[in-house]
Design brief:
single chain; alpha/beta; 3 helices; 5-stranded mixed beta sheet; 5 strands; disordered C terminus
Length: 94
């Protein structure tokens, strides 16, 4: 089952509405969490950087990463692991 990473650098409780909207948007395109796709939502914890969070998802080899801001999208780019990276500016291949 494909996994989509969801990354943001704010607190999880501040992203509940955005994550819910993301899940609903996926559902409108036929992707149902737990049925045919998994969402791995992550935020930096403690002194962890956003780059560390996205690097962990890249290492996990998720199918795509959605970033709540362009900083996260730039951090997720890795020339050795091409994947779809989406942010406020849209989707592109890294």
């Amino acid at each position: 089952m494909p996994v989509i990473g969801f990354v943001n650098n704010s607190f999880p409780d501040q992203q509940a509405d955005r994550l819910r909207a993301f899940d609903q948007g996926l559902g409108k395109t036929g992707f149902i969490e737990g049925k045919n796709v998994l969402i791995d939502a992550r935020w930096p914890e403690g002194h962890q950087s956003l780059k560390g969070v996205t690097a962990a998802l890249v290492e996990k080899r998720v199918a795509a990463i959605f970033c709540g801001n362009n900083v996260g999208a730039l951090e997720a780019k890795d020339p050795y692991h091409p994947l779809a990276v989406g942010g406020k500016e849209g989707l592109e291949m890294s």
